[in-house]
Amino acid sequence: MPNTRAGRFGRLGWLWLSVLVLVIDQVSKLHFASSLSLYQQIVIIPDYFSWTLAYNTGAAFSFLAESSGWQRWLFALIAVVVSAVLVVWLKRLGRNETWLAIALALVLGGALGNLYDRIALGHVIDFVLVHWQNRWYFPAFNFADSAISVGAVMLALDMFKSKKSGEPVHD
């Protein structure tokens, strides 16, 4: 039976991807925070896509953004716990679990990017605005949110793949 374990460090080698996501996220946020004023829009594709600067004190879709400030620390704590779980999960992955390692690394990098904003700034910087003819707006988001979303979709696909093939979801 071939050894499917990736060794003592599991798939921690994929942490480079988390660091890359974190760096791109922070550089892009710094760029838009320094070049736009709050809620200023730069239309990229008329009626569909703009750059804009927004601050989110809540979670996804501004959940709890109107609270008195306690949510900053709650979401920071959740991000720290989730990040620790993701690192342990990466360490426990086998050699043949590259797809899952990439998914976890993307989610981890995004979580750390938004965690940094929460702790350092008290809010998350968002700058991507998708809309439809000024009638429908998707909540503003950032590179970290995109990485988390792609990683989450990959995790879901991995679950379905594992169930369909009859493989256990985890060793």
Automatic annotation (TrEMBL):
It is a multi-pass membrane protein. The active site is at D126, D145. Its main location: membrane. Keywords: Aspartyl protease, Cell membrane, Hydrolase, Membrane, Protease, Transmembrane, Transmembrane helix. Signal peptide: none annotated. Pfam families: Peptidase_A8 (PF01252). The chain crosses the membrane at residues 12-32, 73-91, 98-116, 136-157. Its EC number is 3.4.23.36. It is found in: Cell membrane. Belongs to the peptidase A8 family. This is Lipoprotein signal peptidase.
